[in-house]
């Protein structure tokens, strides 16, 4: 293989001209022939038994070109990047110069490369102090959740429905007299006052008695996720079957014994406060780090290639689609719900993608400038933690170079962030 590299007129872009020997291209064609021989049906030969030269005469030698090119070009493109120490950040634009049996394969690949970062001031940046003190009301709020979690539902049959009650209802919704999809349910439990239904719906249930039937009129919000219903007036036929009320346990020492390992309510409160303090300290630390990185990035000059942004957005979209799948949705369904196209959503992701890329490039530049390194001991310790979390022995993962590199980069990034924060001026 021979490779010529030249910079294009565009910043952070190179053009590779790669020449692959005729023999190697010929071998790739043979490989494609043997993989597909069983599909060729040529008169005078049993299916899949025609020799390669006969297949070429019958269909033309070009029949193997595309697959052979894809097979061999990918391998030598990756090799060319490695040999020339090129960090590609976009998909290559490929142009075939020469592709013919018996001749060298020649093609060009134009690709965007990782940009150079011009660091500005990164020592002594000014950031605000972040603190989240734990107050008594925070502890009481947590205790309230514990009460809710340990509450029991009591059936009510001697009064009307009130705010805070759990109503078991049948309902069916109509727009312009026509029932709409998803607007019907039976024995549906709804907490009155929770705001989980269309505005105005729950308020109109208050005062109903068991077995009462009622017609309720509401207007869907203009920003409602279904465009077919957004802003429209609707009528719901409702029947109330059952009223239940939450009965909360008393907040006393017995409650503490029932829900925790503590003997008194005061001990439980102290434990909750300690847990909240740790959580708040972690939250404050994260925000300080984020603010410090943003402050440093403001002083950085870097020309981020469009391909790098495109790849980052694609990664973010795939990550979001993965999260949607946990909710039983796919991207097409979600886009229909919010009334946007995929391109519009990608455009919205761009600023976040650019910010993320700039942060990573900045931290990499600081790691290089300050000669930050992860020690073997630190890498080993992280690998042991990872092995333990996956229920494996460290020996089972210690030979994985990709994992080791990932851990090493993570440690160095953490050190770079610590370096910025320690050298920052926190007001």
What is the top-level CATH class of the largest domain? Answer: Mainly Alpha
Q: State the CATH superfamily name of the largest domain.
A: Trigger factor, C-terminal domain
| Biggest sheet details | 5 strands, antiparallel
Q: What's the number of helices? A: 13
Basic shape: extended
CATH architecture of the largest domain: Orthogonal Bundle
Instruction: List the domain count as a whole number.
Output: 3
Tell how many strands the DSSP assignment holds: 11
Chain-averaged pLDDT: 92
Low-confidence stretches: none
Structural class: alpha+beta
What is the helix fraction of residues, given as a range?
A: 40-55%
Which percent range describes the beta-strand content?
15-25%
The CATH topology of the largest domain is Trigger factor, domain 2
Order of helices and strands: EEHHHEEEHEEEHEEHHHHHHHHE
Radius of gyration: 33 Å
**Span between termini:** 59 Å
